[in-house]
């Protein structure tokens, strides 16, 4: 891979049987809106893709009308990655793997990241809020559940409508004890905002940074039809900046190794030398800094996302500095955890 070529973000969706992985995938595919997603699954039958999305089906591949595809993994996950990246003329915007209910999603992420064309978009693990404590108490299941929770960059407490306030508080506390550094998001029907799965978008030009992966810049009072909820500012906040100074790569790595609490996602394209650029990505627990080609517009950019009221604006301003601007925006579904 050449320095200027774009790495495709890889997202792994894990969770025990019945946690809501397939429901989440269907939501993401339904909300793709022009984003080309390649989904790798173990079994088409379990995925149950909405029939009106299916354009054609051939062997182990289903082509969807929105430009996305779903492919069965087969016996060799590494070969599945190679095949899906090489077999389509137009590049994908994201690659997503639905892990089996008993697998370790971090192991799958490591296999995918052996391909230099992929970068880590994050590992999302869903748990059934009504079943988690029982699973952890079962000696036959506890190890699987622990491995999945410790693999996660984001833990989704799904089906929170199926438990009362006391039980939900116990689930939150147990998850926090087992994975204290991992952000939690609570929802029903696995309705996770796509921005938490794919990360924010960066624009190339010198103007405002566009956020939440949308085609517009949000403010606390925006009523863009994509959001579908006039109260969306109550869920997420964005922070963005166009810093013009040089950054020290070693210092960026040190900062990313222990980022401030409250940060869910961060993506940045920064100058790390007179003629050198680097891409910084952070998702939940994992960060990466890689050399990158200069952006087309020649302007650096930083976008950060956190839950409303928890995004560490001061720490972000201290790290990335000038021309910082704050915007609040959410996605249409889910509740802050």
Automatic annotation (TrEMBL):
- Pfam families from the UniProt entry: cobW, CobW_C
Domain CobW/HypB/UreG nucleotide-binding intervals? 9-183
CDD domains, alphabetically? CobW-like (cd03112)
Residues forming the CobW C-terminal domain are: 236-307
Origin: domain of life = Bacteria
Entry function: Zinc chaperone that directly transfers zinc cofactor to target proteins, thereby activating them. Zinc is transferred from the CXCC motif in the GTPase domain to the zinc binding site in target proteins in a process requiring GTP hydrolysis.
**What's the protein name?**
GTP-binding protein
